[in-house]
């Protein structure tokens, strides 16, 4: 998954969710396991990330 939009001006919950996924700044890319916890986090910040299935 890749962070496509800035965290500036976002709620504390959205920033914490992005950081828990390993995304700190625009353009950061990380690989996460496909499980329910990760999917829930992705749904919370879906408007800020680009998800690709490997």
Structural write-up:
The chain has 54 residues and is mostly helical. Helix content is 33%, strand content 7%. It is built from 2 helices and 2 strands. The chain has a two-stranded antiparallel sheet with strand order 1-2. The protein is globular, with a radius of gyration of 10 Å. The model has no long low-confidence stretch (mean pLDDT 96).
The overall pLDDT, averaged over residues, is 96
Helical residue percent? 25-40%
Enumerate the strands of the largest sheet in spatial order, edge to edge or round the barrel. Answer: 1-2
Return the string of H and E elements.
EHHE
**Total E-strand runs:** 2
Alpha-carbon distance between the two ends: 10 Å
Q: What is the subunit arrangement here? A: single chain
Flag low-confidence runs. Answer: none
Report the sheet with the most strands, covering strand number, pairing sense and barrel closure: 2 strands, antiparallel
In DSSP terms, counting alpha (H) and pi (I) runs of 4 or more, how many helices?
2
Roughly how many Å is the radius of gyration? 10 Å
Per the principal axes of the C-alpha atoms, what is the gross shape?
globular
Q: What is the structural class?
A: mainly alpha
Strand content: 5-15%
């Amino acid at each position: 998954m890749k962070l496509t939009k800035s965290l500036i001006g976002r709620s504390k919950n959205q920033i914490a969710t992005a950081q828990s996924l390993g995304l700190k700044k625009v353009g950061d890319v990380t690989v996460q396991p496909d499980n329910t916890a990760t999917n829930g986090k992705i749904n919370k910040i879906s408007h800020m990330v680009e998800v690709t299935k490997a």
